Amino acid sequence: MCGIAGIFHAETPKPVDPARVERMCEALVHRGPDGAGVWTAPGVGLGHRRLSVIDLEGSPQPMHSTDGRCVIVFNGEIYNFRQLRRELEAAGARFRTSGDTEVILAAYQRWGLDCLERLDGMFAFALYDLDRRALLLARDRFGVKPLFLARLSDGSLAFASELKGLLAHPLLRRRVDPKALDAYLAWGYVPDSHAILAGTRKLPAGHFLWAEHGKPLPEPRRWWDIDFSQRAHGSEADLSAELLHLMREAVQSRMVADVPLGAFLSGGVDSSSVVALMSEASAAPVRTCSIGFDVESLDETSHAEVVAQRFGTDHTARRVGHGDFAAVDELAAMFDEPFADASALPTWHVCRLAREQVTVALSGDGADEAFAGYRRQVFHRQEERVRSLLPAGLRAPLFGGLGRAWPKADWAPRPLRAKATLLALAASGEEGYSRGLSATTAEQRAALYSPELARDLAGFRAEDEVVDLMRTAPARSGLDRAQYADLAFWLPGDILTKIDRTSMAVSLEAREPLLDHRLVEFAARLPERMRVRRGTGKYLLKRCMERYLPSDILYRPKQGFVTPIAEWLRGPLAGEARAIAASPVIAESGFFDGSALARLAEAHIAGRADNSRLLWQLLMLEKSLTRLGISG
User: Fold this and answer.
1) Higher local confidence (pLDDT), 609 or 279
2) Catalytic position from the list 2, 25, 115, 544
């Protein structure tokens, strides 16, 4: 795993200062502490920081093709590189190294842009073609590996694995994009469609950018998308056997490494399934680790211990308490952009724990999105059935009126918290799901905004992006569209960003076997009854794993990596909650109504409402703006 950075002059091939690229790479040293390199030519500069995982000594970057006509910097792993290498050698290619980087170069020279479809892996790379005087930037199907872009005042395009790489460039302007701010407060992260600083962006998952000297910079183009519009046929037994075969292949392909390897183990279905299949494929005990909490109701370490004992893993567990909140500044520094998924804190801790023993760790990320494992997806399917029975002209006034009248009872048992469900039923399926996916509603955000921010937003509403995404999805049903939104929007913006930054902060490579594209494409074709049955998701996955895992692991209620932020902000961290409204950074930004923020904090501390997610968002925003050097 690595960090990459570079500069490209499109219209005029100006010289690139190697020292400038080197400084950008130095900001990414945590991603690659084992080596560094910079290459420049008229109008282009490529830089690299290396974390050695495969071919430890033989694949330095930037790497030239054997004929010297192409140069690449690459972040990621290509899991099928050995198969591709054999195919390319049969066609006459010659290799000097034993790693996957040189295979990408040879694949590009053999197949051009079509090489992307042949790559099985996680990647972001920059490849410069000297003959065509063109730069190819590409990102993997799901966005496991990041790539930030910025158009600078001198006309150049700068790119880097993290925003901090761009921040090292003196021409990058540090002004908050109002739309990115609204999106952050809507979702708790800045999605791939935005970047927190105006003038910066992210190369979207499954996209590439082809830029040529002497031509204006084009827009990124999609090279892959997930398709939910087809349905697989076959018995449950046949589909289960195919699923198990795909999972075994995915896990085994990600166990290839020339360094110590292990796994994250939460005790849930997904990580337990990965560990089970790793143990099946490994002659030695698998190294596993887990993180728990000082709030017993949220601590899953006992379930992880059950799985560890079942498979005889070399297991280590630790707990996180409210005292670990002191590390929140370090957490903000990892992400650069504000990031408010509170599970980033324990994820970072489990990455640190893993790095004490291994350099590569497999995770269970991706299964919930692919196999309908989230409660919100199951609820959405049920809501869609209600929508199909009642016309919109009847639903909107009936459920809308009930929803507006129903109290927002955060303190009540779940069955009595019907306000969100009623309001969702009043809207279209796309509107309802976007509302359920969001951390805050548009109305809640508007109540906090200053008149100046409201003016700058000019009617922009973050939810519209998810609504449009669902309406244009290649899908048959509401469940399809919800899963498509989770895979295309939530997964790269939240889940994969979280694991990439927290793992790379400690120079650990995380791999996600359940995001193998063949496995996800199979899951997208499953009939709905194989995804959701009797009100729970991941039906076929759980049935498939019954031969490996006990029922209390497979069928206990889903908990997730939940952090007890609500309890902490009412107790030991209540002072932090109150301090948000008075924060000089928040006040001087001019984005918010300070009195509204103060009321938000007091209502949470008093137990009248659960505002913990929003308070955590504001706290992480403050830390991010401070780090970025922005006060307004």
Assistant:
1) 279
2) 2
